[in-house]
Task: structure prediction
Amino acid sequence: MIRALPLLAILLVALARGLVFPGAPLHGQWSVSGELARPRAYASATTLPTGEILVFGGFDEGDPEVVNSRTELIDATTGTVTSMAQRLPGRIHHTVTLAAGDRVVVAGGVEWSGKSFGSTDRVDVYLPYEHRWTVAKPLRQARSDHGAVALGSGEVLVTGGNFNVRPLASSEIYDPRTDRWREAAPLLSPRLRFSMAPLPDGRVLVAGGLSGKGEPLTTTELYDPVADRWERGPDLALPRVQHALVSLPGGDLLFVGGSGAAAGTAERYDVSRNAFVYAGSLAEPRLAAQATALADGRVLIVGGALERIGRTEWEPLVTAEIWDRPTNLWSPFAAPALPRVLGELVATRDGAYVVSGLGLGQSPQRAIERLLLH
Result:
């Protein structure tokens, strides 16, 4: 007969082995870990296979260049920030996609011409192990406010958005190994400012955003790269624009916040059922917030703007909330020091970093804040 170990002994063994029990959440503490070379809003931040975080693009109307032409690298372990000497045309409303395992594809967006912004067909590829940029073949269609996602083939699917003020339905696929673009099937209808994510079976889901007429959408579309075909997907419970999207372990997708009635809600795309299900209510309605899945399985959402009737400008929030999948509940979480909307939040092995965004008075942010879980 085998005797059961006392609970205390089991806990001690688990701790010694560095195990974390499911449902035993970690606590967090924020600190200002460094600063970007210049303040920037609307920048992108992407985790690299080297363990660094790539910060690209961004906007500051107080900067002589208006858009930021510098690339900065954050060491996710130490928080050290390095500014690269190589400069690129700065832009905003672009996409950044890690494809083919080790290539970061920056496509489209809008560039500043000296008097106004305009959509661009520019494409740049960053090689993280060589720490350098290369200029790639341009998009077949200049576009901004579009979507991009890595396919299982290692290629990048780019779709929708707008060309200056013209909404787009067109799609194209880029192979970073051959530096070639090819045409793909268009969306069923024009769409911009939507969210987009790959599914476990290789298909891609496009959801929400704005229609070609500027109407918030509940509709979704599914792309099959083998058949090169789009089809109608299940509807969101509420129209979502400027919401957060998080890919969950197992392939489900979490949609959080947004404008209007969606601001205080969340819903999960259940990939096995091809349906959206309720995922709890936020303590504070928010749009244009930053969200990511943490290493312990929970989802963190930080900042964003207070969404309320009569809002005429961004009202950045400093609060944070955490979603626990087993209970389907949102709870208050440790908040960063600075209010921030339209920032970028990226997870690390021991926490997360938040960069860029607009603070109080619509000011672009320079401070980098780091979350450490313990």
